[in-house]
Amino acid sequence: MAQSYLSLEFIDKTFERNGTKSDVLKQISLGVDKGEFISIIGHSGCGKSTVLNIIAGLIEATSGAVFLDGKHVDAPGPERAVVFQNHSLLPWLTVYENVDLAVSKVFRGKRSKAERHDWVMHNLDLVQMAHARDKRPAEISGGMKQRVGIARALSMEPKVLLLDEPFGALDALTRAHLQDAVMEIHARLGNTMIMITHDVDEAVLLSDRIVMMTNGPAAKIGEVLEVPIARPRNRIELASDRTYLRCREAVLKFLYERHRFVEAAE
Amino acid sequence: MSVTQLNPKEDKTPALSAQVVAFARPRPQKPLARQFARRGRQMLAAILPPLVTLALMLALWEILCSGPTSSLPSPSRVVSESWELIVHPFHVGQGVDQGMVWHVLASLQRVAIGYAFAVVAGVALGVLVGQSQWAMRGLDPIFQVLRTVPPLAWLPLSLAAFRDGNPSAIFVIFITAIWPIIINTAVGIRNIPQDYQNVAKVLRLNGFEYFGKIMLPAAAPYIFTGLRIGIGLSWLAIVAAEMLIGGVGIGFFIWDAWNSSLISDIIVALIYVGVVGFLLDRLIAFVGRLVTRGTANA
Ligand SMILES: Nc1ncnc2c1ncn2[C@@H]1O[C@H](COP(=O)(O)OP(=O)(O)O)[C@@H](O)[C@H]1O
Ligand SMILES: [Mg+2]
């Protein structure tokens, strides 16, 4: 079997809590090409974060394995940087120091101090946050925090960038700005990105492929949808694009017809 | 040519800057004056009520204790009886006959040593208990019992162990201050958000880096709560610790004054103890605010 750049092979995950076992993921297999943008969409609680955390190495799969660039993933590391939903910037550090923490750790001994400084500023520029370098997280808005979180993750030069509902807590306008920023960064750097979302438009706008998960327990990959829309994409032009509308409808149908969220399952 | 070119420039610059000054100046002036007025009012609001209360209490005390049969001295008698003590805080004499400042400094030195040991050992043990499930299960119940032992109860034991007054007093300070530091540090460590731990894992921080860059700053607000309780308790314990060991120190001074029936001196000493304790508390709170700037409000 020819392995993809990132490949998830037959991942199962069973959580055990107070002696009761709950199967969360069942036989998750997925191949991701280098430079691809993948969205994972599914109802809340189905196991999206669990998949992402397994790729990040923060959670161990019960069985199955993850390979990145031919190597088995068994621990967290900076080549799989994560952008967390609630930014998780360290509040006692300034914006600059938060990014510098990552840069100093990852590039110590590989780049000079001046080069590391330039690299921090370069990544802050990339997300348009250089102006706030000396602010603390408490002094900037939610969207800005998320931008810094993205800068911190990008600064590690990850092979894969993992984003767990990165814009979930933001208002629609800020979210649109950040989606554009992520699209632009993806176009410029060509990173491989995996993003969790529960927003159908976001998934279609950003992704090359959309991975749709069935409801838990024992969630599977229900369907993988290609989004054959040329880049760069423009949200206003896409609003009336036939392919866009078809993809959107397909995801909606999956989520709300075939795999309706059953509240009682929680 | 160069002169003619330079001249107009030189002419222009001061004119420009003068304009800027002229614009900038009147703007902050009004708010500044208003700010001072507000500051003044705030200070007054903070200082006036306690002053009034103090005056009322002194008056009440004066009335209650001014009778000839009163067993406690009135404020005016305290001032007249202990006048020497009050006006000569830097007096140097023989043995326990020292100015109040020297007694307080001797006590502060003991507190500083005992407290410093308590901070180091307390944070270390707190980190251990907060980090390790097994250390917590093993140590926490013992800490919970030991921390309820009153400071004075440790004194005979430490006298027996150290066979000397000074180390015994320092040990009592240590053992009194350490419990809140351990417990609060452990709680702080256990409450480090999973997100910060995940950041550390993704960055592959090693143990030392995690300790310095994530653990200590994240737990700092809790640690400083413990440190503040600890300094208060150790100052409470100093009087007890010093009473029985003699020499210079505010605790022994009070004990000595009681043995010499100098009730007024005791009251003067109590005022010193209270003010110094208050200042110690404020000092730690201030340092805590400085260190945990930004940490509390994520
Ligand atoms: N550490 C854990 N222990 C036990 N159950 C867990 C744990 N983490 C997640 N789960 C369960 O796994 C399921 C999937 O969670 P998650 O991956 O966070 O869902 P999603 O991100 O799709 O909303 C949920 O039902 C959740 O209760
Ligand atoms: Mg989630």
TrEMBL record, chain A:
<keyword id="KW-0547">Nucleotide-binding</keyword>
<protein>
    <submittedName>
        <fullName>ABC transporter ATP-binding protein</fullName>
    </submittedName>
</protein>
<keyword id="KW-0067">ATP-binding</keyword>
<keyword id="KW-1003">Cell membrane</keyword>
<dbReference type="InterPro" id="IPR003439">
    <property type="entry name" value="ABC_transporter-like_ATP-bd"/>
</dbReference>
<dbReference type="InterPro" id="IPR050166">
    <property type="entry name" value="ABC_transporter_ATP-bind"/>
</dbReference>
<dbReference type="InterPro" id="IPR017871">
    <property type="entry name" value="ABC_transporter-like_CS"/>
</dbReference>
<feature type="domain" description="ABC transporter">
    <location>
        <begin position="8"/>
        <end position="240"/>
    </location>
</feature>
<dbReference type="InterPro" id="IPR003593">
    <property type="entry name" value="AAA+_ATPase"/>
</dbReference>
<dbReference type="GO" id="GO:0005886">
    <property type="term" value="C:plasma membrane"/>
</dbReference>
<keyword id="KW-0472">Membrane</keyword>
<dbReference type="GO" id="GO:0016887">
    <property type="term" value="F:ATP hydrolysis activity"/>
</dbReference>
<dbReference type="GO" id="GO:0015112">
    <property type="term" value="F:nitrate transmembrane transporter activity"/>
</dbReference>
<dbReference type="GO" id="GO:0005524">
    <property type="term" value="F:ATP binding"/>
</dbReference>
<comment type="similarity">
    <text>Belongs to the ABC transporter superfamily.</text>
</comment>
<dbReference type="Pfam" id="PF00005">
    <property type="entry name" value="ABC_tran"/>
</dbReference>
<keyword id="KW-0813">Transport</keyword>
<dbReference type="InterPro" id="IPR005890">
    <property type="entry name" value="NO3_transporter_ATP-bd-like"/>
</dbReference>
<dbReference type="InterPro" id="IPR027417">
    <property type="entry name" value="P-loop_NTPase"/>
</dbReference>
From TrEMBL, chain B:
<dbReference type="InterPro" id="IPR035906">
    <property type="entry name" value="MetI-like_sf"/>
</dbReference>
<keyword id="KW-0406">Ion transport</keyword>
<feature type="transmembrane region" description="Helical">
    <location>
        <begin position="112"/>
        <end position="130"/>
    </location>
</feature>
<keyword id="KW-1133">Transmembrane helix</keyword>
<feature type="transmembrane region" description="Helical">
    <location>
        <begin position="44"/>
        <end position="64"/>
    </location>
</feature>
<dbReference type="InterPro" id="IPR005889">
    <property type="entry name" value="NtrB"/>
</dbReference>
<feature type="transmembrane region" description="Helical">
    <location>
        <begin position="262"/>
        <end position="280"/>
    </location>
</feature>
<keyword id="KW-1003">Cell membrane</keyword>
<keyword id="KW-0472">Membrane</keyword>
<protein>
    <submittedName>
        <fullName>Nitrate ABC transporter permease</fullName>
    </submittedName>
</protein>
<keyword id="KW-0997">Cell inner membrane</keyword>
<dbReference type="GO" id="GO:0042918">
    <property type="term" value="P:alkanesulfonate transmembrane transport"/>
</dbReference>
<dbReference type="GO" id="GO:0006811">
    <property type="term" value="P:monoatomic ion transport"/>
</dbReference>
<dbReference type="InterPro" id="IPR000515">
    <property type="entry name" value="MetI-like"/>
</dbReference>
<comment type="function">
    <text>Probably part of an ABC transporter complex. Probably responsible for the translocation of the substrate across the membrane.</text>
</comment>
<dbReference type="GO" id="GO:0005886">
    <property type="term" value="C:plasma membrane"/>
</dbReference>
<feature type="transmembrane region" description="Helical">
    <location>
        <begin position="210"/>
        <end position="229"/>
    </location>
</feature>
<keyword id="KW-0812">Transmembrane</keyword>
<comment type="similarity">
    <text>Belongs to the binding-protein-dependent transport system permease family.</text>
</comment>
<feature type="domain" description="ABC transmembrane type-1">
    <location>
        <begin position="104"/>
        <end position="284"/>
    </location>
</feature>
<feature type="transmembrane region" description="Helical">
    <location>
        <begin position="168"/>
        <end position="189"/>
    </location>
</feature>
<dbReference type="GO" id="GO:0015112">
    <property type="term" value="F:nitrate transmembrane transporter activity"/>
</dbReference>
